[in-house]
Amino acid sequence: MGETLMNNFEWVKEQLQSSEDSQSSYLSKSFVVSLENLFDDIEERKQQYEYEIDGKLWDHGSW
Amino acid sequence: MKTLIVISHPDIENSNTQQFLLQGAKHQNVDTLHLDNYSFNSQANQQSDLEKYDRIIFQFPLYWYSAPYSLKKWIDEVFTRGFVYGSESKLIGKEFGIVVSTGMPEKNFAVGGGDGYSIDQIMTPYYALARRAGMQILPTLKVFQFYNMSEREHMNLLVDYQRYITQKYPDTLENKIEWFINQFDEQVDEFDNSEPVKNLLEDLGIELDTLKLTVEDIKNGGDSNE
């Protein structure tokens, strides 16, 4: 993840870990775990699009 | 979107899986109907209630390759001529989903597995019912060996379940992003000062849309260097 993305994400995790309500913090922590997966998926998709736009697949005639 | 989760379980209080899922559903704007604790008042009332929902989900543990008997009984009493067949189905266009849990491992339901059939094959009667009713069938959410899962797997399951019952179909990355953004708004008390992350998510969603349009333009014969 990029630096800005990581900083924001770590900040949210810190906010959620400070929650005192055990039930709501479990739901919130679950949300954060899934959010982390989502950011990974977004990054992977971005790289895929950027790779295609750079023309590497086109140059090799893979289409 | 309004979602109804129809739950069939004869001992729901002692089911860790169902109690876990119910906690997830509690924090989403959905309705649940537990058939085993439900007094069937009238067929007409039950049918008119179903018409109010956009998404109807059957949720149950796998008992001998089917649902517990309360679901079969309810289906027989509610999905009748005049409601789903014989005239235009009242459920046309609504979404139909299944959340099924089993204590068996996933590999048992793979090709060559011990149970001989996949979960999707076993769910065929329900798919046929939904198809007959003119419903849009969603992929089934399968929960294998809940008690064997790690804490992280439980956490992922919880959110996957919440998305399954309330996220727009299909399960694209774009719809997933939109769902997470909406969750920030709806769980504002849980996520104090999370505005920067929500804004970043929105910006990333827009960035992906732009990249996608560029790729489509290239495929349609446009020049990305113009």
How would the blueprint of this fold be written?
The complex is a heterodimer of chains A (63) and B (226).
Chain A: H1 3-17, H2 22-54, H3 56-59
Chain B: E1 3-7, H1 16-26, E2 30-34, H2 43-50, E3 55-61, H3 69-78, E4 95-102, H4 119-122, H5 124-132, E5 136-137, E6 141-144, H6 151-166, H7 173-186, H8 195-219
Parallel strand pairs in B: 1-2, 1-3, 3-4, 4-5, 4-6
The total strand number of chain B stands at 6
Domains of chain B, number: 2
Which H/E pattern describes the elements of chain B?
EHEHEHEHHEEHHH
The total count of strands of chain A amounts to: 0
Can you describe this structure?
The complex is a heterodimer of chains A (63) and B (226). Chain A has 63 residues and is mainly alpha-helical. Chain A has three helices and no strands. In chain A, helix 1 packs antiparallel against helix 2. Chain A is elongated and about 45 Å long. Chain A starts with a helix and ends with a helix. The relative contact order of chain A is 0.10. In chain B, strands 1, 2, 3, 4, 5 and 6 form a six-stranded parallel β-sheet that branches. Chain B starts with a strand and ends in a 7-residue tail after the last helix. In chain B, helix 1 links the parallel strand 1 and strand 2. Chain B has 226 residues and is of the alpha/beta class. In chain B, helix 1 packs across helix 6 and helix 7 packs antiparallel against helix 8. Chain B has two domains: 167 residues, Flavodoxin domain (Rossmann fold), CATH 3.40.50.360; 55 residues, no CATH class. Classes of the chains: A mainly alpha (63), B alpha/beta (226). Chains A and B meet through helix 1 and helix 2 of A and helix 6, helix 7 and helix 8 of B.
